[in-house]
Design goal:
single chain, 385 residues, mainly beta, 6-stranded antiparallel β-sheet, 3 helices, binds alpha-D-galactopyranose
């Protein structure tokens, strides 16, 4: 009986997807195959898809092959009601025209490289200066603006989507052909989204991959995020100059508005007269994560939203995390359901190597050589309180 009801429920869910979403299934007959829907064509006429990774607990991620982008993430609140907790657009056009990096995979180099240049093995490389004097998020056409190849790798215990992209030698000024794989996983029994990054190169290069989701755990993507309570497992951060390039210093957070070692509302100190907050127009900085073990996934951040009760834990293998409080959102980006995203209506927790590492010998290295494999992982884990 229970089995019949479950089957009926699953069948009904799938029928609803077909009706509302126009989806087909990558592999009919197998329950684990991902529903896939057409997401339109790019301006260049390339077809783009979106895939649904869900579990039976009301947790659902939708990922597009455009930019290997997380376009929607439905997460239950403390009473079990799911709501979308990430900013984004309804249409592919939104992502193609947008300049906020909503949900995108960022590469070849996440965050800034000073003056769009770096030296590797004595050779100077020039990158696009697309953010004042600096190169931001991989240049003019970063990985978030490329169409990736998607392969359904779902297993009995998880929904899995692997996205691949080959970045040519010299693309956006970076040396070496880089083969990148980004894998999104939603495990059957857990409300979490895992992202695994892998890359190989045929020449020495630099790599720093991340995801640029803007979260608003209230489920109301029009509300500001200032009452979200944040904890960061970091006793130091990397202060920046007026163009948001790290000075090279690792500064202690104690006694400053950058101290999130105990949970604090994002808005509690954001308007304090602090030079670093002034440079960032709020928080837009890299924190140096504490490691209690050498390698592996460790909790970097914990966020609690009091009205919905949603909790987000961010786990990563990376040494740093960029906490960005959505300071450049100003209502001009009009997203899902016609919602204009006003100032600080989303926050990002971008797991990463430190910004501008190729120009700082004292930062963990971002160099990748032929024969090596770049591997990092991040988990966005949800619960309620
Ligand atoms: C990152 C940067 C910010 C900003 C956003 C996108 O988080 O650090 O300065 O560029 O991306 O707007």
């Amino acid at each position: 009986m229970v089995l019949m009801i479950t089957r009926f429920a699953v069948g009904f869910f799938l029928l609803t997807l077909v009706g509302v979403f126009g989806v087909t299934f990558a592999g009919r007959g197998s329950q684990n195959k991902l529903p896939v829907a057409d997401f339109g064509k790019t301006k260049d006429g390339v077809s783009v898809s979106k895939f649904v990774l869900a579990n039976s607990k009301g947790f659902e991620a939708i990922v597009s092959s455009y930019g290997a982008t997380l376009v929607s993430l439905k997460v239950p609140d403390r009473s079990g009601r799911p709501a979308d907790v990430v900013l984004g657009y309804d249409s592919l056009e939104g992502y193609e025209n947008g300049s906020s990096y909503f949900g995108g995979t960022i590469g070849r180099y996440g965050n800034r490289i000073a003056k769009g240049q770096f030296t590797l093995n004595g050779q100077l490389f020039h990158l696009p200066q697309n953010d004042g004097p600096n190169c931001l998020h991989g240049g003019k056409i970063g990985f978030n603006k490329r169409v990736w190849t998607a392969v359904d790798r779902s297993r009995a215990d998880a929904q899995v989507l692997e996205l691949s992209y080959t970045s040519g030698d010299g693309e956006e000024g970076f040396p070496g052909q880089l083969k990148v794989h980004v894998t999104y996983t939603v495990p059957a029994g857990k409300n979490e989204l895992r992202i695994d990054y892998e890359a190989t190169t045929d020449k020495d290069t630099v790599v720093n991959l991340t995801n640029h989701s803007y979260f608003n755990l209230s489920g109301n993507l029009g509300a500001d995020i200032l009452r979200h309570e944040l904890l960061l497992h970091a006793r130091k951060f990397t202060p920046v100059d007026a163009t948001l390039i790290p000075t090279g210093e690792l500064r202690v957070v104690a006694g400053t508005p950058f101290d999130f070692t105990k949970s604090k509302a994002i808005g509690a100190r954001i308007e304090q007269p602090d030079e670093q907050l002034k440079f960032g127009h709020g928080y837009d900085h890299n924190w140096v994560l504490e490691r209690t073990k050498q390698a592996g996934l460790q909790t970097a951040a914990e966020v609690f939203e009091p009205t919905s009760g949603r909790v987000l834990d961010v786990l990563t293998t990376e040494p740093g995390i960029q906490f960005y409080s959505g300071n450049f959102l100003d209502g001009t980006a009009v997203g899902k359901g016609g919602q204009a995203y006003a100032h600080r209506t989303g926050f990002c927790l971008e797991t990463q190597h430190f910004p501008d590492s190729p120009n700082h010998a004292n930062f963990p290295s971002t160099e990748l050589k032929p024969g090596q494999t770049y591997r990092t992982s991040t988990i966005f884990r949800f619960s309620t309180r």
